[in-house]
């Protein structure tokens, strides 16, 4: 195999090699062209044609190498542009995903806040219910105590009535026995004292009953006030919950719309990037196919030129064997053209 000066992927090496090798080749071509013009009168037209074919094939090979280098450089630039576009799209996508995460965190915070407000409202309602139950229990206890006191008052009133009847009877008896027995006057005074004491106890009991009734009225008013405060608190809690839920729903709908818009923009950008990538890929594939076809055509022409050169060399050898030293200049020129064709073939292969 032929030892190449550079690897296939080392484009700068090939550029430097071509800059170093093409001028000597062009100078050699000029020299051989001038020499060919000088000896064209003594050459066979077929040799001149083969030399021209070799020069043309070498030029085609150099053009193929130059176009390969240009297309490789364009491909590298296109790849760099694709990388930049992809990085830009990735940055935009990451920024949009971060915005989506922030919006999702805001939605979660609003939901958590609404849940906490509901829990606080439920706790306040529970406290109000417990306080209402305690006040109702106190009211029931006071009513029970009032009933007991009323029963005692009724019993005392019965006793008072019985005492009044007994006093009347005693007064009658006293009036009856005044004339007979004066000693019963003391007993009558004692009975009067007892009745007066009973009256004072009854009046005191009635005062206590009045105080208990006032306390019951105060408790009833307090219970009504508590019920009103509970109603107002429940209404406030319901209004607050309704406002918070409405704000949350509105915020959630806005966030959902923004998320939909962001998703559509991201999808459109991705689709545009995909279509651009597919179009660029198809264009590059078409260029590579065109270049491959041109290289195949040039290689075919190069093979034809090499075949013609081989035939000419064979004919020249035969003539040299027959004619001696007459065609040494022609043989040298053919060797030079063959070297040029080999170098062009190596460049084409690279």
UniProtKB/TrEMBL annotation:
> Region annotation Disordered: residue ranges?
312-332
Annotated organism of origin: Seminavis robusta
Q: Which branch of life, at top level?
A: Eukaryota
Q: What is the lineage of its organism?
A: Eukaryota, Sar, Stramenopiles, Ochrophyta, Bacillariophyta
Name-wise, this protein is: Uncharacterized protein
UniProt keyword list: Coiled coil, Membrane, Transmembrane, Transmembrane helix
| Membrane-traversing stretches | 47-71
Note the coiled coil stretches, chain numbering: 93-159, 202-236
């Amino acid at each position: 195999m032929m030892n190449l000066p550079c690897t296939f992927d080392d484009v700068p090496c090939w550029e430097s090699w071509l800059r170093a090798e093409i001028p000597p080749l062009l100078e050699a071509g000029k020299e051989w062209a001038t020499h060919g013009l000088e000896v064209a009168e003594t050459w066979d037209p077929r040799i001149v044609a083969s030399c021209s074919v070799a020069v043309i094939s070498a030029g085609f090979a150099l053009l193929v190498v130059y176009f390969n280098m240009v297309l490789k450089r364009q491909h590298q630039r296109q790849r760099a542009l694709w990388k930049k576009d992809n990085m830009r799209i990735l940055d935009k996508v990451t920024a949009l995903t971060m915005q989506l995460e922030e919006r999702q965190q805001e939605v979660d915070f609003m939901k958590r806040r609404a849940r906490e407000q509901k829990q606080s409202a439920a706790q306040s309602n529970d406290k109000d219910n417990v306080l209402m139950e305690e006040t109702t229990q106190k009211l029931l206890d006071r009513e029970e105590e009032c009933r007991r006191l009323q029963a005692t008052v009724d019993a005392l009133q019965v006793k008072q009535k019985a005492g009044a009847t007994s006093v009347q009877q005693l007064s009658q008896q006293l009036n009856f026995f005044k004339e007979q027995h004066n000693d019963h006057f003391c007993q009558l005074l004692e009975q009067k004292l007892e009745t007066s004491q009973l009256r004072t106890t009854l009046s005191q009991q009635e005062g206590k009953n009045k105080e208990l009734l006032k306390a019951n009225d105060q408790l009833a008013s307090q219970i009504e006030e508590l019920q009103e405060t509970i109603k107002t608190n429940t209404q406030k809690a319901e209004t607050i919950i309704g406002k918070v839920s409405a704000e949350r729903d509105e915020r959630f709908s806005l966030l959902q719309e923004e998320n939909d818009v962001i998703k559509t923009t991201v999808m459109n950008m991705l689709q545009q990037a995909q279509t651009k990538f597919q179009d660029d890929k198809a264009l590059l594939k078409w260029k590579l196919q065109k270049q491959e076809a041109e290289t195949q055509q040039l290689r075919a022409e190069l093979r034809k030129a090499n075949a013609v050169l081989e035939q000419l060399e064979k004919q020249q050898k035969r003539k040299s064997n027959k004619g001696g030293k007459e065609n040494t200049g022609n043989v040298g020129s053919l060797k030079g053209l063959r070297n040029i064709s080999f170098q062009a073939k190596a460049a084409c292969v690279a």
